[in-house]
Design brief:
The structure is a single chain. The protein is mostly beta strands. The protein is 3% helix and 50% strand. The chain is built from one helix and eleven strands. Strands 2, 4, 5, 6, 9, 10 and 11 form a seven-stranded mixed beta sheet that branches. It has a four-stranded antiparallel beta sheet with strand order 1-3-8-7, with no helix packed on it. A hairpin with a 5-residue loop joins strand 5 and strand 6.
Length: 128
């Protein structure tokens, strides 16, 4: 079991930047696929949209809509995964969730129903 806690959500103007953090604890999280998803508050996990994933070996994958603007990374020393969001758009407004699942990200992809561990989410609001 992995416990996750997101932070860093804020209100920002279009074109601005944000850094979201996901603090992880529990056993073997470093061997998990870590993902960032987004969706309206209260939306079921299965309906959340995949944003980015980072695998245990550091390989990353991004949704087409955020490629070139968002970057996912992790700091094993701090047990933290980050999502750097640049040039944000009003369409990026959402609740952002951190998720973790055992297995390779290349197999899990953005299938949110396969991620068993979730944080509570952090709200990002982008104004035009």
């Amino acid at each position: 079991q992995v416990q996750l806690e997101e932070s860093g959500g804020d209100s920002v103007q279009a074109g601005g930047s944000l850094r979201l953090s996901c603090a992880a604890s529990g056993s073997s999280y470093n061997k998990y696929c870590m993902g960032w998803f987004r969706g309206p508050p209260g939306k079921e996990r299965e309906g959340r949209e995949g944003v980015a994933t980072i695998d245990s070996d550091g390989s990353t994958n991004y949704a087409d809509t955020v490629k070139g603007r968002f970057r996912v990374s992790k700091d094993p020393a701090k047990n933290t995964v980050y999502l750097f969001m640049d040039d944000v758009e009003p369409e990026n407004t959402s609740m952002y969730y951190c998720a973790a699942a055992p297995g390779a990200c290349s197999w899990l992809r953005f299938r949110s129903h396969l991620f068993a561990n979730w944080g509570q989410g952090t709200q990002v609001t982008v104004s035009s």
